[in-house]
Hints:
Rossmann fold, 8-stranded mixed sheet, 44% helix
Amino acid sequence: MNPPIIAFFNNKGGVGKTSLVYHLAWIYRDLGLRVLAADFDPQANLTSAFLDENRLEEIWIASSQPNTVFRCFQPLIRGIGDIADPVVEEKDEGLSLLNGDLQLSNFEDDLSTEWPGCLDRKERSFRVISAFWRLLQKASFHQKSDVVLIDLGPNLGAINRSALISADYVVVPLSPDLFSLQGLKNLGPTLLRWRGEWEERLKKNPVANLQLPQGQMQPIGYIVLQHAVRLDRPVKAFQRWIERIPDTYHQEVLKEADSLNVDVKTDPSCLALLKNYQSLMPMAQEAHKPIFHLKPADGAIGSHVAAVQNVYWDFKQLAQKIAQPISLQIP
């Protein structure tokens, strides 16, 4: 049975999406699951969160192995074969990374060109468009993964279209601001259109034994990130945007016509309200650790000790809430 593939996506940047995927990958691993994190963002921010600069240099410059997403696609792009078997980065027991690559943006043109080719039943078109999903299948099978988490860039381009087709589920990270609300109005109709267009193409697969993604892209909820907090309440400047998130999400993403008249705390689609962790985040980035792994040697002393514990419980609850609708069994 294939592991569930969860994409974290918002076409508006700066919402803390990569940090969210990074911390969820670690918390699922800490909870006993085997996790594959895949960096499908051409900016490779997830990869740089996991790896220090020396390791990045070894991978991107000093190595020629298929140890990045883009290198795995090279035989297909060059027309000399199909996707290569990936060499994943094993960060810890049970946690693996499919490395991102700054050159992945070079795959955009192929993905744009081959999308209409699927309607003409072209085998190469189907192999190119399904490349992300088939790469995930290879990597997750080899790693015996229980769950796959995908980080994506903030746009509605051809790379994200093909990457999202790979996903069984979609989680939307949001900031409490006008830009995120406007982003939802683009995101919802786009996901619906891509899903329908891929269903049309699936029927035209010319190769009987070519396995393809189903393109479910089922939305399972949203997460509000990095909102400022004062006395455990969002500051007034953000409150009005937070209040508008539930209706906007349900209308634009879930296509529900009626107003819910609920707030984020009672909205079943709200997976979490995550606080701004202030000084803990740069401390964790410096140590290349998730916040909840920080130790006194990393600078987590005094009041930071209790804060680190609180972050652990925040992410544990979030991980469990994401797992429920997808029947992901946590030991």
